[in-house]
Amino acid sequence: MPEAPTTTAGAPEDLALNALDDAASNVEHRSSGISGRGRRLTILALALGGFGIGTTEFVAMGLLPNIAGSLGVSEPTAGHVISAYALGVVVGAPLIAALTARMSRRVLLIALMVAFTIGNLATVLAPSYGLLLVARFVAGLPHGAYFGVAALVAAHLAGPRHRAKAVGQVMLGLSVANVVGVPAAAWLGETFGWRTAFAIVVAIGIATVVSLVRVLPSLSGMTITDPLTELGALRRSQVWFTLVIGVVGFGGMFAFYTYLNSALTSVTGLPVSIVPIALMLYGLGMVTGNFVGGWAADRNVSTAILAGLSTSAVALAAFAVLAENAWAALILTYLVALTGTTMIPALQTRLMDVAADAQTLAAALNHSALNIANAAGAFLGGVVVGAGWGFLSPAVIGAVLAVGGIAVAVVAFMTARRRPVPA
CA nearest 146: which of 363, 303, 301, 312? Predict the structure, then answer.
């Protein structure tokens, strides 16, 4: 969908637009009974939920040996708990978004976080491997719908000129989880047993529910649709184009991340003790990328997507060439995360635009697409490593996928210009 051209910063037209937008935004927020401080607290509460979701999604990867030993299964078998969670995300996002279309956004967000908390409590209490799989699937069901609805709420509260920034702030919880939540939960899981890690997630879930109940406004001004209207998003080609951009373009980042540990130790030659620092740099890159991506998407969504894909391709290709140098490898680890993450606020915002009156389903589907990208990227990385091409080959695959994402994006934008999406 083409964006209107922006004026030069500081020009009279730009100042006038900002003043009009701020005035309209103030009227809207006064009518809904929420102040500027209230908006910030609401977005912080939404981001806290994202922090819990990000922690539970990634902490299991580092605790697979502990889970396997505790339940008497092999480590590859224990790895299916990760797949069960991802499957819950892919299934739950569109299903919940469509079936709850008539529900109050406030009630829905609180209900989703309650369900997430219950799923993680079931993970803590699961007595057997089979029940653990069920618990992880249930915990994954609210993931996509929560982020989708939270993004719509943040955009609604922030106003049209700052919506992508607000979406990025909500997604920031997911990024911060990789810097703080996952390492802390993993350490607790290693020290006191893997169930402790998920007990921490339960505590975060409870804190989020309490926060949402206290600060989330009524959101009566948000549009309520119905299941058939939401399913109408699946008939819009630009929705599918945007989802494919995410699957293809973002898949490269996951191909890289899956084998980053092995690349840094076997190719770069870093000691195992340094790898957590590299992973923290990756998480910091994701945090920075959310800020940069939100800022860029508020100026031009299409440009932000193309810039994210292009710089991601360059960073991944550079890692494949320069990773034998330790400093280059660490810097590029940060840059790969930064450039890849800048796309997320822009993709989420574009889905809101092209979905017209079916925004809830489209926004939720973005997280199904990203989880498919996770699975596909890890699979393709495993294929090239298994073929004997070495641990730098996933970065090459990542660069190729990012270029593929650029190709899909160009076709999508050209098609949108020929057939504009109805407002």
Answer: 363
